[in-house]
Automatic annotation (TrEMBL):
Domain of life: Eukaryota
Keywords: Membrane, Transmembrane, Transmembrane helix, Transport
Record-annotated Major facilitator superfamily (MFS) profile domain positions: 52-484
CDD domains, per the entry: MFS_SVOPL (cd17442)
Protein encoded by which gene: svopl
Protein name: Transporter SVOPL
Amino acid sequence: MDPELIQYRNTLNTITLEELKPQSNEAPKGHKTYTVEDAVETIGFGRFHIMLFLIMGSTGIAEAMEIMLLAIVSSSIRCEWHLEGWQVALVTMMVFFGYMIFSIVLGLLADRYGRLKILTISFMWGAFFSLLTSFAPSYIWFVFLRCMVGCGVSGHAQGLIIKTEFLPKKFRGYMLPLSQLFWLTGSLLIIGLGSVLIPTLGWRWLIRFASIPGIILILVFKFIPESARYHVSVGKDQAAMDTLRWIANINCSAMPEGTIKEPKAEKTGSVCDLFDRKYLRTSLQIWVIWLGISFAYYGAILASSELLERNLLCGSGQSDAIERDMPEESKSPCHCNMLSPSDYTTMLISTVGEIALNPFNILGINFLGRRWTLGITMATTGIFFLLLNICMSSSGLIAVLFCLRALVSANFNTVYIYTAEVYPTVMRAMGMGTSGSICRIGAMAAPFISQVLLSVSVTGAFCLFASVCFVCALSAFTLPIETRGRALQQVK
């Protein structure tokens, strides 16, 4: 046979065999790869993370001022527009209604278009409508504009997600709970400003001052990059590598050798993914906990201002006696009881309680685990709600409110960390957004218990809060996944 023909046949066979070989997605032999988790752990904690902590942590200051504002101005708007209890409660409910609707929407958009973009847009939205609220000409306009503010505030959770995705795993259990310092700062600021501005310039100027931190943060977000985990989840590996190299330079650290190699997700997360067999039980139990924690947290805040404003120290008896002694024209559901300087002092002291348990909360999260810590603090919260049924002096009330605020704050700390860690990157913002949305159902119900039912039956209101806390404690103890020491998952 012709040698050239034999060579031609051999060439054809070689090509055919090469085509039949299975194609491998693996990197060529000898080519090193790493994951985002590997890079984050190799870079370690440094100057970038301190900057990240200060900037993203400050989102808590802005959020706390906008939310706590409701407890401070409630007595003022009640007087100005002659509102009944249910109308004051409706303001709080509509803020959380806006938060509930937009939490899911913004969570979905953050998984698709980026955490930082959604965070910036939400702050711009919130600051704009917050300023408009200070010019509200009527009660109806006030309710509508505060609802719009709630829509914007719902995106602030993206700051926590960005922090979580950049922090090495051994630092998450320490740095994330410390973010509570910023919420505490915002709460103290709004109470302090309220005590000065409301008696002098009025509640409208208080709202304007409360908008300032959000406006400042919009300007400083440019110093924080988009999450590298998000970039990888949407196939932008080079952008993720550039971000990680920039962080390594700031921290004076080394990067792993090679290139990023992560399993590619077919699509970004959706609500349906939360009902996937792997996460169904976790999602349902987390939602129960979020709803209950929010119900207890805002219930404690609003109940404290209501107890002080209406003198409900020993049930409804004192309130009735005080109303009997008031002038005839004030004996209406709309009569004015403005907060006194001593009331602001009491609120400041009880608010400081939010940080009191932080050292123990950090120890529990890192040594007992997220589930046990959350279960213990939720059960103890229920016990302290029951203690409010006991007739006590003003100093006794301050002590109980102090401990109660410490507990409800610790609950929020732990559930935020757990939720951010338990879901993979492709659905983390969706998981946080949905949880935040469910959470607002509890927040919407809280004012009707703290500001309406409480004036009818103190015992009924606090027993309801306690019962919800005990149910949440049981749900926390039985969560199927413990995230302590667990690497963040990239895909389902």
